[in-house]
Design a protein that fits this description.
107 residues, mainly alpha, 5 helices, 57% helix
Length: 107
């Protein structure tokens, strides 16, 4: 067999159960952070806050949300979350992270 079908077309390789998919949002965020040589701790923290943001909005995809949803989440955390100012800066940074902002706009 030389990889040619009976009709002369080239045979395509088949791998059962594997489809080529676009990376998921949090995987894209991780990749963007790694390209910028951010620390693993920063990556974990950003992913944590982005995940909380998504869950806060009933698992809506961030591309379907805008600045108002970010502000609602940050306000909720400031009022209900009882977190320190340093945590507030961190979650604000995660929500406004450049890669995350791009995903809000649909890449």
């Amino acid at each position: 067999m030389n990889g040619t079908m009976e009709d002369g077309t080239q045979a395509q390789p088949f791998v059962a159960g594997i489809e080529k998919r676009e990376p998921r949002l949090l995987d894209r965020v991780r990749d963007a952070l790694r390209v910028r040589h951010m620390s693993l701790r920063t990556e974990k923290t950003y992913v944590h806050w982005i995940r909380r943001f998504i869950l806060f909005h009933q698992k809506r995809h961030p591309k379907d949300m805008a600045e108002a949803e970010i502000n609602a989440f940050l306000t909720h955390l400031a009022v209900e979350g009882r977190v320190s100012p340093s945590q507030n800066r961190c979650r604000t940074g995660a929500c406004r992270f450049e890669g995350f902002e791009k995903s809000l706009r649909g890449f």
